[in-house]
Batch of 2 targets.
Target 1
Amino acid sequence: MNEKEKILHYLEQNARLTAKNIADALDMEESAVAEIIAAAEKDGTIRGYHALVNWDKTDREHTCAVIEIKIHIRHGEGFEEVAKRICAYEEVQDLYLMSGGYDLMVVIEGKTLRDVARFVGEKLAVIDGVTGTATHFVLTKYKDKGVMMDLSSEDHRLMSEI
Amino acid sequence: MSLNYNELMNPIARDIKPSGIRKFFDLAGSMEDVISLSIGEPDFKTPWHIREAGIRNLNEGRTAYTPNAGLVPLRNSIASYMSRRFGLTYDPNGEIIVTVGGSEGIDVAMRTLLRPGDEVLIPEPCFVCYAPLAQMTGAVPVALPTYEKDAFRLTPDTLRAAITPKTKLLILSYPNNPTGAIMTKADYEAIAEVLRGTDIFVIADEIYIELCYAKEPLVSFASIEGMQERTIVVNGFSKAYAMTGWRMGYLCGPKELVRPALKLHQFGIMSAPTTSQLAAIEALEHGDEDVKMMREKYNMRRKFLLRTFRELNVPCFEPLGAFYVFPNFSRFGLSSEEFCRRFLEEEKVAMVPGSAFGESGEGFARVSYAYSMEHLQIAMDRLKRFISRLEG
């Protein structure tokens, strides 16, 4: 990994690290790290800094589903046009173009099962070019972005010797 | 009860002082929501590919003993590490023993070298096992104090002044637990100069040698001219590869010493755990990147702590090794035990009093940074609060 990649790697693991912290780890000048981060923000390499929330620990109702979508490409259009239309819905968390048995994979979050069903039936299925969908509801999220949702895995050390 | 255990048992075992911080841990353990800065093992898990090597070999049913000295491929890997890293030549067949952690290596080396009445020079503050293990052989531990003004390095003058006709062994434990001090090549040269022409042996406990934040990589004491013939190097996998629970260490030394040491290991242990040995091969052959990544993270935390102590006006020499800092809290007028006790009771943060590592640790505390940045930040916020209250 080059310097920029290392900095991105650190931030991806912990967005609250300061440029100073990262400079300490990499034996760089704080200003040099700050510059690289600023440039990465500007050119869109860094797209945001978010808290990783385990909503299961709250009272908020929410449902998450993964939806496989098959697309029939019309003449003169690509996947991108369809993808853009799907992205426009704010329920859509993630959208990927996939290899294999289907074309697009959407991760959506809604309040209830009915919200998700309504999204698929009323918004997704009616998009021009969508020929089929398969919806999979998430039952439990164990790990997200490399982080275990279960706190009991946090410090595995049993013994505090000298 | 008819047996008078106290009278009947080995008086040396009976009289060994329990580790000085036990009661402190008991106190911390009895409180809720304590955050600790006291653990002396990596917070990282063993890198996955190393764990996988252990699992794969278990799946393949490799569950038998290994040769007493350890698997040949592991001894070969150790020999090649000692050579590429320190320029030292050790014959995998006769000069290397794979041990159950570095601790067994220290124990076996001491029992090989020491006779009753021999004096063992132990620079302090230091890890707590050396004196009790020496005492079990009937030898006499002699503390060599080291000082903050010398960055807790052993000086040739201190060493020279402590040597008597009975001096048999010097322990060198750098990078040091608890101070984080290192010895550079030049520092070691000065020590070697004192030892040349004597019959004094050295156990170089180099378990933290991969965790160094100086520009120049550390040298092994055995690589100083004329020292290999009198040195048993103890090293292992616990700290560098975050493999504490695998209990994997090794010792390297002249075959005249390793041969008798192997008998003690053979009769006491048989052979180190097989799964762990197979995982250790993976660590040595493919673990360099993991060590580098962990070192970077330790360094981030180390510098954060040093900066915080500076802001708080707490003197702290810059430790360049291991994962400890050893700040000097003496300006608050409390003993290190009292300081740590009050900090624990009032702010629920546990540090280890420096006095637990020898008299010369009085006034200091050991702060481990084998913790996440978030954890350290919380602990330092509490320290700030505590200190501003003390300064009232």
Target 2
Amino acid sequence: MESSLFIKYGGFSRIYKVIEKFYDNILKSETLNAHFKHTNMERLIHHQTSFISSLMGGPDYISDEQLAQAHKNLGINLKDWQEMINILSLTFSEQGISEDDAKQVIAKLETKRDFIVCH
Amino acid sequence: MSLEQNNADYSVLNYLQLPVVVLSANEHKVVFQNNSFQLVAQHYLDASNNPTNRSLLQLIISKLLENDTDKLEVEINDASYRHIFRFTANVVGEHVIVEGEDITELKRNQFLFNRTNTLLEDYSKQMFELAHTDQLTNVPNRRALFAKFSQLQSKHEEFSCTVSLIDLDHFKRFNDSFGHDFGDQVLVTFAKHVKDSIDDTCYFARLGGEEFCLIQINIKDTFCFANTEKLLQTTKTIKLMTPDNSNIGMSFSAGVAVYGKDGISLDELLNNADKALYIAKENGRSRVVNFEGA
């Protein structure tokens, strides 16, 4: 099996905990928490764990088309995106993901921005 | 019975960590709610994912009791408080006792189990592919060939096939004259040529070295022989560029054995095809020989 950040950080179980903390932090954000008023957080955490795992070299999860489809009516703007990136960086740091590894994951996430942010 | 009396009866429920609420069976009026339920209900009211701002009690009454469902799952997300409860109702005399089980961990573990299971299945498929594929030519290997033969034999009652054992001519000379990389290129080119030339009625595998096997399934023997002959002719048209920039051709010798006549097991068929292959080589290579006529 190829070495990856997914393996390095303990696979789904560890990344799940990181994502749980990420959403705890998201819900504390005045900019972002309104987006999650009617959201089933459990399902969202499951999706996000699978998605971030794939960015960390875990199994493929979602195509760019599916990603765009899932976000098209959510009205996420650039300010929201930047806030989300900041919170994710903070969460990675809180959860013991090294700065270099966090940068690597966020750089991969940035390649998906156009499929998530509304234009 | 007064509410105070009921409270006295149920106050023991305050020792439980799980949220419990007791309602009258007919009118669904609250008789007792334990401390844990009150705490959970407060978090529910404060939660960001409570779309209607209605109370947990109202939700339980409308979804669980009035809809007469078995269970109700409620997710509560109040920033640092994230729990999922499964509420169930039991009628005890004139009362309905609703209790909530915290299934947050269960849900998490179910998800992790499912994802890990999928991951293991994917790895298992990859491992299977690796174990059954020749790394150089990317065609099935000897192990895969025997597994496929056995599967075909057991699956089809009127199974028939021919087995062509193919050996690339002068392969050692390619390796010795132009190096192993060129030898590998010969093998890859030949394997690709065969893959591109055959259809679903054939199964092609590398047995090892420069030896390959082509099984043609449920096709008349004479056609199979002709097909292998045709494959030889098209292989002879392939030109390879050697490291010293000259063109070089390739050919093969093959021995053919027929299922039933020349053997039943693959070992037996390969053994007899090998005898025919030996004759093909003895007679100058670049030819296909039937075991029957060998």
